[in-house]
Amino acid sequence: MIDTAPTFPGATSVTLLDVYDDLAPDGLRGGSPHMHLASTECYVVIGGHGELHTLDPGGLRETELRKGSVVWFTPGTIHRAVNHGGLEVLVVMGNAGLPEAGDAVMTFPADIVADAARYAAAAALPVGPLEARAEAAARRRDLAVEGFLVLRDAARAGDLRPLQEFHAAAARLVRGRAEDWTGIVERGPAAQAAHSLDITRALAAGDAGHLSAAAVSQAPALVGERGFGMCGRLRAYDVGGDLVSR
Length: 246
Description:
Elements: E1 13-19, E2 34-35, E3 41-56, E4 59-66, E5 70-73, E6 78-93, E7 105-106, H1 110-113, H2 116-123, H3 130-156, H4 161-174, H5 181-204, E8 216-217, E9 227-228, E10 232-236, E11 243-245
Antiparallel strand pairs: 1-6, 1-10, 2-7, 3-4, 3-5, 3-6, 8-11, 9-10
């Protein structure tokens, strides 16, 4: 019999995000522009309204976000959540564990992204009072917006070289820690895909034994203080598989 583990679909992660609503230097309210190098991210908008500003080799795009919107973007897409009022998003992230392992680079100015020590210092948030962490998150966001505006303006002028250079610098920045990412993918989405193949092959052979292991899981209720993420205040659901009935 093939056991069915109570794992969350697709080895994804789920996070509740309240997008920052303080002003950035360009007069927009929202989060820190950044990109992921190996994971696809999805926004499911559950409240408020705003926009998703993106930059990729295809150019610039501004996508409206309102309740019910579902938008996703692949690795290499620089994205910035802009809050026009009460924007609340359920974030579904592929390759659960990779974002926590450093699968994101913010669009700080080029000289900072090119220097691992300076990047780490600019990206870090202090441990301490809420107000100090909020101020540091705002400074980090503002620095990312500064670098993003350079990339955006170049793309508007038809010059994608700064974007290409940012991609290359970001890859150099994560190269050392990326050695551990293969294991995360193998234990997560690759293992789930292999498990699904085992089930379909068993069913094709007339074996439905795995159905006897059917179960229901529920993530624990969200409690505690919201953290400071790149795009806003967030709390991640624990979708490791808290079995509630069987």
